[in-house]
Amino acid sequence: MASTKSERVENALQSLLERLVPAQQSGEDEDRADQRWEDANNLAHDILDRGEDEAVPVEDVNHAADLIKRKLLRENASPEKATTFGNLYSRLLAQPVLGKKWAILYFLLRVGEEEMDGMPQMAQSRAGSIGVESRGGYGEEVESEGRYEGNGVFDDAFARNGLPRMNEPESPRKAFTRDRERPVPARSRPQQSEDAAPESPVKKSTDGLEPPESALLRDLPFTLQGLSSNSLPFADKRSLKLPPTLPVPLVSLLHTLAEPSLLYRSLSDFVESSEGGLVGQALRSAIGIELRSYLGLVATLEGQIRRALAQLDENQPNGGLGKAGVTLKRCVVWTREATLGLRLMSMMVESAKGKKGGELISLIHSFSSSHGDPFVHSFAERLLVHVTRPFYNMLRAWIYDGELEDPYQEFFVFENQDHEDSGATSVWEHKYRFKEAMIPSIMTQDFANRVFLIGKSLNFIRYGCGDSGWVESYSKSASRELKYGDMATLSLSIDEAYKTVMARLLSLMENKFALHSHLQALKNFLLLGQGDFIALLMESLASNLDRPANSQYRHTLTAQLEHAIRNSNAQYESPDVLRRLDARMLELSHGEIGWDVFTLEYRVDSPLDVIVTPWANKQYLKVFNFLWRIKRVEFALSTTWRRLQTGARGVLAAVSDKLGEDWKTARGRLAEMIHFIDQLQYYILFEVIEAGWNGLQKDIRKPDATLDTLITAHTTYLRSITRKGLLGGGGALDFTTQLHELLKLMLGYKDALDSLYSYSVAEFTRRQELSAKIETRTKAGKWGITEADEDVQSPLFPTSSVRNRLRERETDSPLPQLLPVQGIDGERNMLDQLRQRLQSLAVDFRARTNVLLGDLAYQTDMDMRFLGVAMNFNDVYTPVKRRRQKTADKVQAPPSAAGSTTRRPQGKAEEGKA
Amino acid sequence: MPSASTSQPTAGEDKRRAARETIDILFSISSLLNTNLDRQSLSYCVSLIENGVNPEALANAIKELRAQNERMGVSQAQ
C-alpha cells in the first residue's frame, strides 16, 4: 500500500511538474532545460520531504473554510464572493469522494495567498497560523524573494498585473473574472491601479515625508474616532492640527478626512449630553446608532490599515504603500458616504437646538419630505423611525388611556397648570390645551384636533364621569402599537377610537347623567315652562314677597316652593330633579322688597356642568329673573283688573258719577298694559324659548354629535334666548333697561290704581254712611243733611273723619274747624294727585313704548320685529325712530362681544337693585 | 447476483461523476482564491494531497517553482 501510495505521489508530482516547469524554450539548450527540470524536481522533492516531517496543524475543515471566508471578505468590499464560496463549500462538504477536504482547502488558500498578496503577506500569515518552528525552514527563501521583489515601482506594478497573465495560458479563469469584477469594480483591482498610477510621482517627490504617510495612516483611525494622536492632535474642541511639514495635496486629503473626525467629535458630545426631552433623547439615541455604524466603518478601516501596515516593507519607496492598497486617498473615498451622514446629522443637531417634541419631529420630517437628495431623504426617514418612538408612545397613551405621559411638555397637548379645580367646565375646557407649534408635520391639523378630542374625552370619562372601568377595558381592547410610517393604520385606528369614545361619552351623558331631563327641568322651572307650577308659586308667595326684602326668610320660601311643587304637575318629576330645585334670595340691598330678591335655583353638578356651565347658570338666572318680573307684573295687573271688574259692578258703579271718567281711562290703559305684557310674555316663552329649545333638540340628536357640539348647541340656545329675549347682547340698544322702566311704570300705575280704588271705596263708604245717617235722621224726624255733614270726611283720612264723628257725638257743635277744611282740601288734593299721577304714568308709558317699538322695528332679527308688530297691531302707538347721533353714541360705547360680556355682571346687579 | 452486477458499473459511474463534480467545485474555489492553477494541475494536487502529502509543503513547492519560472522569464526578457 505504502509503495503504491508513494508511486502515485511520484506520478502525480511528475505530471504536476510537467505543467509547472516551462518546456524547453527557444534559445535555450537542452542541457540547461534538463538542468532546470532536474532542479525543479529536486526542489519539489526536497520541500515535500521536509513537509512530511512537519507538524501538520489540526485538521479542521471549518477552520480552513473560515480562513478562506475571512480572506475573501477582507479583500473584497462586497460579501458576494464570500457567499459564493459558502455555497461551493457546502456543496463540497456533501461530496463523499475526498478524504482530506481540509488539506485541499488549506492548500488552495496558501497558493491563492501568494497570488494575491505576494510573499511578505504569506510569511506573516504563516507565522500566525502554522507556528513558529516552521519559520526557520523558510526564512532564507522569504528573504531572497524579498530581494527579488525589491526592484522598484515598476516591478510592483508589473508583477501584480503581469505575472498572473503570464502564468495563465488557459481561458477558464475568464468566466470567473467576469463574476468577480462585476459586483464592486471600484473597490478591487482597478481602483488599486488607479491609485498607484497618479500617486507614483507623489511618492517619488515625497519620499522623505515627515511624518510619513504610513504614520498618518496608523493614526487615522484614532483621528476618525475623535482621539488625539501623535501626528494629528486635536488642538481644541473644534479644530484638528495638521503637521505643518506636509505637502499641499496631502494636506487637502487630511482636510477632507478631518471633517468626519470633527463632526464625529461634536456629535458624540451631543450624544453624551443629556438635556432635552424624550424626543431629544430619542434623537440622541438614533444619532448614537448612526455613530456606532460609523465606528464600525472606522474599525474596518483600521483593520485594513493595520493589515496594510503590517506588510509594509521599509525598503520599498514610500514604504510600499501603493502595494498594500490602503492609502490616505482611499480612506477619503471610503469615508465619503459616512461624512455625508455625519454632516447631515450635525446639521440637524445644530438646528434642533432649543426645539423639542413636535417641533423637533417636524424639523427632521422636513428633511425627509422636502429634500431632493434621496440619500438625505432615506437617512432622515431612518432617523425618524427612532425619533418618533417616544412621540408615538405619548400618542398611544393619550388616545387609548386618556393620559398625558409627557414629562417634558413635548406633546401637542399640554396640561394647563393654572386651572384651579373649580368644576368640570375647567376640566373640559381648560385642563388640557392645544399647542399648535408642537404638532409635528407628520400629521395634519385636523388629525391632531381629533387626537386632542379623543384624549380629552377619555380623560373626561375617566375623571369627570367616574367611568374609568370602561376606559381601562377600552384601552385594553383597542390599544395597539403605533409607529412611524404607517399612516394608514394610524388614521384608521384614530377614526375608530374617535367614534367609539364619542359615542360612549354621549351615551354616558344621556343615560347615566340624564342630560336631557335636566335640560328639560331647567326649561320648565327657570324658563317658566311649567305654567301651573309658576302660577301656584306666585300666588302663594305674592303676599310674602310684597314685604321688604329683609323680612324674607328662606324657610318660608322653601316651604312655599314645596307647596307649589306638591300641588302642581311638578310633583311627577323625578326626585333627582326636584332635589336640585331650590328657592333662595339674592343678596339684599336697602329698600328692596321680596320680589326683587327672590330667585329660583337649579343646581347642576359635575359632570353635567360641562354643558350647563357657571356662565350658563348665570344666563338661566338672568332669564328667570326677567321672566319672573314680567310674570309678577302680569300677575299684579291681572289682580287689579279682576278687582276692577268685580268692583265695577258694585263699589265703582256707585261712585261713577264722581270717578267714572277716571276709571274709564284707567281701564283702557290697564288693558293696554296687559296687552303689552301678554305680547311680551308670549313672545319670550313661545317665539324665543320654545324655538330655541327645538333647535337645541335638533342639535343634540345629530348623529355625529360630540360633547363639544352639545356644549356649543347649549350655548347657542342660551345666547339666542338672551339676545332675542331682549336681555342685552342686542347690540347698540339696551332693551333690558327699557323694559325694566316699562315694567316699573306698570307697577307704579297699578299702585296708583290701587290707591284710586281705595279712594273709590272710601268714597263709597262715606256715601253709604251718609245715606244711612240721613235715613236714621229722617226717621228721627230731623233734617236728612245738616251743615256739619257737608264737611265731608276725606275717605283717605279715616282718623280725621273718625275724630270728626267723635267730635260730632261729643259736642255736636257746628264749629267750623280747621281740620275738616284741611280734610276737604286734602281729599281734593289727593284725588288730583292721583289723577295727575295716573296721567303722567300713562303718558310716560306710552312714550317709552313708542321708543321701544321704534327700536324693535329696526332690529335685524325677524322675530323681534314681529314682536313690535304684535304689540302695535292696530297702530295705536307711533313708534319713534331714535335720533341717529344717539344710536351712534351707543354703538361706540359697548363694542359688541367684549362689551356684552363685561356688561353682563352689571346687568345682573341692575336687576338685583331694580 | 444480477442486481449486484448491474449496480457495480453504475456505482463506478457515480463515483466518477462525483469526482468530477468535486473537482469542479474545487476549481471554482481555487479561482475564487486566485490560485492560478488550471484544472489539470489542480487535480494532480488533489491526488497528491489525498495521498498524504503535506498541503503546506505542496503549496510551498508550487510557489517556489513559480518563482523560479518568473526569475527565468525575467532574465530571459532582459
Automatic annotation (TrEMBL), chain A:
The keyword Signal does not apply. Residues 515-877 form the Gamma tubulin complex component C-terminal domain. Residues 127-213, 881-914 are annotated as: Disordered. It comes from the Eukaryota. It is found in: Cytoplasm, Cytoskeleton. Residues 217-512 form the Gamma tubulin complex component protein N-terminal domain. Residues 167-184 have a biased composition (Basic and acidic residues). Its main location: cytoplasm. The keyword Flavoprotein does not apply. It holds the Pfam family GCP_N_terminal. Signal peptide: none annotated. Keywords: Cytoplasm, Cytoskeleton, Microtubule. PANTHER family: GAMMA TUBULIN COMPLEX PROTEIN, GAMMA-TUBULIN COMPLEX COMPONENT 3. Belongs to the TUBGCP family. This is Spindle pole body component.
TrEMBL record, chain B:
Keywords: Cytoplasm, Cytoskeleton. It is found in: Cytoplasm, Cytoskeleton, Microtubule organizing center, Spindle pole body. Its main location: cytoplasm. Pfam families: MOZART1. It comes from the Eukaryota. InterPro entries: MZT1. Required for gamma-tubulin complex recruitment to the microtubule organizing center (MTOC). Part of the gamma-tubulin complex. Belongs to the MOZART1 family. This is Mitotic-spindle organizing protein 1. It comes from Zasmidium cellare. The lineage of its organism: Eukaryota, Fungi, Dikarya, Ascomycota, Pezizomycotina.
